[in-house]
Amino acid sequence: MKRVLCLLMLVASAACSSTAENVVTVREDEPTVFVGNPGLLADLSMTNVATRRRSDGRLEFRADLINRTDDDLRFQWRVEWFDSQGFLVDDPTRTWQPQVLNGRASFQVSQVALMRDAVKAKVHVERPNEIKG
Amino acid sequence: MRFDRLFVLCLASSVLLASCSSPEVSYEDPERPAVVENRFSMNDLTTVARDSVQKLIKDENTEGTTRPMVFMAGLKNDTSEHIDMQSVADAIRAALLDSQKFRFTAGSQGAKEIDDQLSYQAVVASPESAAKAGRAIGAKYILYGRLSEFAQQSDSSKLKDYQFVINMVNVETREVLSSGLTRIRKVTTNAKVGW
User: Fold this and answer.
1) What CATH number corresponds to the domain at position B84?
2) Which chain A residue has the Cα nearest residue B33?
3) In which domain, by residue range, is B172 found?
4) Domain limits for position A69
5) Contact flag A131-B28 (C-beta cutoff 8 Å)
6) Considering its fold, how many domains does chain A have in total?
7) A116, B19, B69, B70: most buried, per Cβ within 10 A?
8) Do B37 and A133 touch (CB under 8 A)?
9) CATH of the domain at A64
């Protein structure tokens, strides 16, 4: 009985600790890096990741997020931009963006860097963690 | 005796409850979404600013000119809420300045301070160092926008849709060069079991 309770507590704590992020790093000259929470990775896949340099010199990236489940999937995403030396580029409009995807639906994340010296985009995806009343 | 014990017990419980119910304050990530109530939030402000800025830097209608001067004409609040639209304008302007695609001329918020400073320098500063009036750079474009809301309510839920539109217009030709639209939907569902 004690072993069952311990096991249930471990499973519960593992489920509750799913605030770790999926992070995709997109860089012009490097392959994408996918680091993530297995729980969210199982539900949400990121494909068709691509970048391009626009005519005005700004880096643009896009990625398709696909809900692998049959149910609505809630998550939030945020993009960070970095320059060639790895410094975070300031963006006053950076914020977590809540998103809902219907079962088996897809959604394209795309963004243009504010500054021309951005060479890398890091896309963070995590389960919702809104501040509630 | 029994009454004394009961009184002490009640007093101790009151003190315990009072200490347990004292508010706690902690710092939070300002980029984290907050859904404390069904009103326009800081996260919504930043979302609106981000979408507007993305549209304006992607649009190529203003290409061919070197960092044109823009005047932020004002954002109108057509919702039933008190929303600080100046904060939305500030966020958009800060991001567009960072992008170095546009320049901005001071709006009404800085105009009085500039006039005061010019008057002051004309009297106090040396002629060679004093800032000269009449040298402002005219704006080529103006930015203006509007936030509106659509609300629906039933016994069990309340739905609020916000729509924000921002336009960039050529001052000379009055041509609308860029128009961005952002929509946000928030739903409040009443608890099925409660007091």
Assistant:
1) 3.40.50.10610
2) A130
3) 30-128+136-189
4) 24-130
5) yes
6) 1
7) B70
8) yes
9) 2.60.40.3230
Number of separate domains in chain B: 1
What ipTM did this prediction achieve?
0.76
A6 located within any domain = no
SS3 at position B54: helix
- Pick from B60, B91, B95: which is nearest to A114 by CB? B95
DSSP letters for chain A: -HHHHHHHHHHHHHHHTTT--EEEEEETTEEEEEE--HHHHHHEEEEEEEEEE-TTS-EEEEEEEEE-SSS-EEEEEEEEEEETTSPBPP-TT---EEEEE-TT-EEEEEEE-SSTTEEEEEEEEE----EE-
pLDDT at B111: 83
Q: Pick from B36, B94, B99: which is nearest to A132 by CB?
A: B36
- CB contacts < 8 Å between A and B, how many? 73
pTM for this predicted structure? 0.80
pLDDT tens digits, one per residue of B70-106: 999 989 999 999 999 999 999 999 999 999 999 999 8
Categorize the per-residue pLDDT at B193 as very low, low, confident or very high, splitting at 50, 70 and 90.
low
